[in-house]
User: Fold this.
Amino acid sequence: MPMLLEKTWFTLEEAESKFGVEKALILEWVDEGVVRCEMEKEKVARVNADDLELMMKERVRI
Assistant:
């Protein structure tokens, strides 16, 4: 049975669109260390979807 691979890294624009969270808040979470990121030329290039999902679940509980 083939494994289904889900996309786990998104650009800030993709993450903003998919999760409905503003880029500024995503970058805040990156700064806090709760969302992992990949850097390119000293800028956040991609963020981890699993981390974003967890943060969204946390926000819903609040």
Q: What stands out?
A: Helices lie at 12-19, 23-32, 49-61. The chain has a mean pLDDT of 90.
